[in-house]
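Changelog-adjacent note: as of this version, every example in the card shows the full chain rather than a window. The one below runs 224 residues end to end.
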Amino acid sequence: MQDAGYVKKAFAGIARRYMLANHVLSLGIDVLWRRKTSRHVAESQPKLILDLATGSGDLARELQRRCPEAKVLGADFSIPMMREAQSHHFQQLVAADGMNLPFQNEAFDVLSVAFGLRNMASWPGALQEMSRVLKPQGRLFVLDFSLPTIPVIRPMYLFYLKNVMPKIAGFITGEQAAYEYLCSSVERFPSGQAMEQLILDSGFKTVKSYRLSLGIASLYIGSK
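Full-length structure tokens:
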């Protein structure tokens, strides 16, 4: 279980500089990860998309650009983060907790969640709620950090994750403790086959995954 109260407070503290910190910490590669995700989303030509844990709206804006005929709705439980999305000209927003979504069953063609599932109170519970609001044949896109499996790269990345990233993010946002928590959550978060199985156990019939940038991030695509 994640500490939802702490996460909400942490994101309120880093909201104003969150997008900048992401770009700096990933050397801008996070932009490419979102573009890849949106290309996969566009393949199914969805009409209604929910971008959960939308934060500053980075993925939601990319989805709207890639799927101009679709309606893209962003949802987040952090009001300060959604204000950042509004400041970047994304307005289709609703305050919502991923553990208890205020939508009817089978409402959306696609649900995306980028770097958000990891911070939800219960990963299985959140995935089951995502499955509930997706239409039959609907598709789930989970983009999040993972750990490289290459023996040489993995220890170097873990050192960067634990010792370097929080300090850089702390300098940018003034909230080092928040990033110490967020970075430590990456190591605890299931990835690869473990995440695939978690998605299958949560109401999805099929799942496939893509390892991005040597496994620093992963994209999981589940279908109901």
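Structural remarks: The chain has a mean pLDDT of 91.
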